[in-house]
Amino acid sequence: MLRKKSSKAQFMLFERPHFKEYVMARLVSVAVFIFVVFSIFFLLFIPDENVALLALSFLGFGFCVFIFAVYRGASRMQKELNTINQYLENLDNLDKVDAIEYKAHFFTQEFEDINQNLIKTLSSSKKREDVKQRYNAKLKLKNRQRGDMISAIAHEFRNPIASIMGYAQTLEDDKEIPSALQEKFLNKIYNNGVKIEALLSRLVLWNKFESGEATLHPSSFDLYILAQEVKVSLQEKYPQREIVLKGSSYMIEADRTLLEVVLKNLIENALKYSRDEVLVEVNEIQISVSDKGAGISSSDISKVTKKFYRSGTHSWDNSMGLGLSIVKSILALHRTTLEIESEENVGSKFFFHI
Questions:
Q1: With contact defined as beta carbons under 8 Å apart, do 290 and 339 qualify?
Q2: Are 145 and 307 in contact (CB under 8 A)?
Q3: Which of 124, 293, 305, 337 has a C-alpha 20 to 30 A away from that of 329?
Q4: Using an 8 Å Cβ cutoff, are 305 and 338 in contact?
Q5: pLDDT score for 141
Q6: Which domains does the chain have, with CATH numbers?
Q7: What is the CA radius of gyration of the chain?
Q8: Crossing angle of helices 323-333 and 179-211, rounded to 10°
Q9: What is the pLDDT of residue 319?
Q10: What is the DSSP letter of 352?
Q11: Separation CA 135–CA 131 (nearest Å)
Q12: Cβ distance 354 to 254 under 8 Å?
């Protein structure tokens, strides 16, 4: 152990010289040796001592000029080597790449070539790092969305499943329940089952859009008649609410199934988030769904069509936060967009054009 520590201490005391120091040390040693040799030669073979001293003076001056020129060149080359070394150090710390002096001019072509190659390597590494950071950010967003989705699914499925289990358990425990009450409980179980099926269908549809598997199956149909069918379907689900349909026959070429999803989502959202009548208008100018509900704040309008978005200011049941996101995706497939006009405590209007 003592020998190892001793050898390590000796190594620490011995530091490798820098390029300039190494060149100058070797050059001065050689110059001194040559000067001594020539001095002896001059003193031995030049009989005139004054001439010999003059020759030695010129020789010494020449050596000084030569050593100074080499010193300047070595200093410049050491600076270039330091610049290149800085590039290499920043391969592990790409945040400092932008601080490097890329316009440095090198003394020799070899150093210039090395400089250009290192710049290319650093730029490529920087781009890969940027791509990696964007990918990590996207991955974090996906993971957060996945967590939101699981939370939303658990929230949306918990109530209907609890209702089904509760009514079923009551029917199982009490065999003497009147037939009318049994029929009511069975109807509750059926309705909650339908709700779970609708949630699953919406989740499957959203997954198709996310994976890029959703495709259009266009056909020619009357959008006004489709709106009437959706109205009748939702009127059965919300018998206490009024849906007013205005407009006239409007033939279009589109995916009937997907547009039915659009109308159903928009009208059902309006029914959930308002208490007065819901107005649906169909004409060649636009298809709109208007309500007189709580409205949407200006800061939330741009967010309501995002995946898993839930407003913190209203107790909205947005079916896992996918309803308007699906609407937006379906309309995008039809090369149109969902427009929203809303005012808090006044109402909202959702409209688009096909």
A1: no
A2: yes
A3: 293
A4: yes
A5: 80
A6: 2-127 (no CATH), 140-211 (1.10.287.130), 219-352 (3.30.565.10)
A7: 42
A8: 50
A9: 47
A10: E
A11: 6
A12: yes
pLDDT value, residue 174: 82
Segment (H or E) for 108: none
3-state secondary structure of 246: strand
pLDDT of residue 322: 65
265-317 confidence digits (pLDDT tens)? 899 888 888 888 999 999 988 999 999 888 887 777 766 766 555 554 444 44
CA atoms within 13 A on the CB side of 162: 6
Between the alpha carbon of residue 80 and those of residues 96, 111, 121, 337, the distances in Å are 18, 7, 18, 58
Q: Residue for token digits 């020759």?
A: 55
**Nearest-10 Cα torsion for 42, 43, 47, 49:** 110
Structure token digits, residue 17: 């010289």
Angle between helices 109-173 and 49-89 (to 10 degrees): 20
